[in-house]
Amino acid sequence: MTDNRAKALEVLQEMLPEMLGADNDQVQTSGFAAELGELSLDHVFGGLWARPGLDRRSRSLVTLGILIALRATEEIKVHFPIALRNGITRDELEEVVYHAAGYAGYPAASTARLAGQEVLDFDEAAAQDPLRHMKATD
Fold first, then answer.
1. Residues in the chain with pLDDT < 70?
2. Where do the domains of the chain lie?
3. pLDDT tens across 10-25, in order?
4. H-type helices in 3-105, by residue range?
């Protein structure tokens, strides 16, 4: 196992353990474009989240701002709970949405607000199971 992959697995285990297989050495994906999970593991979690220079809390804030601007709703739903795990409070998440309205526009911020309502349910339980919104639709 490469050093990059080991770092990626460590980051993913801490932020999204639900995505790892039973052996904790690969992402649980199947079906169409299943390799995307492995690519994400190596490039995003190993190549970006494991880099020095920004702590995970800061990376979560940056990531959410970008995802809100892109209106990447499904990724926003995953990253709000990750942000809670990375030490961002619910009030701070709301401020990210408000701030994004000024730069990404009100429609993008409104989309993020709805995604936040769906996955956070006004409590901190989402921090324990960031993918629960996906399980409800399976």
1. 1, 21-26, 28, 122-138
2. 3-49, 56-135
3. 888 888 877 776 666 6
4. 3-15, 35-40, 56-70, 73-85, 90-104
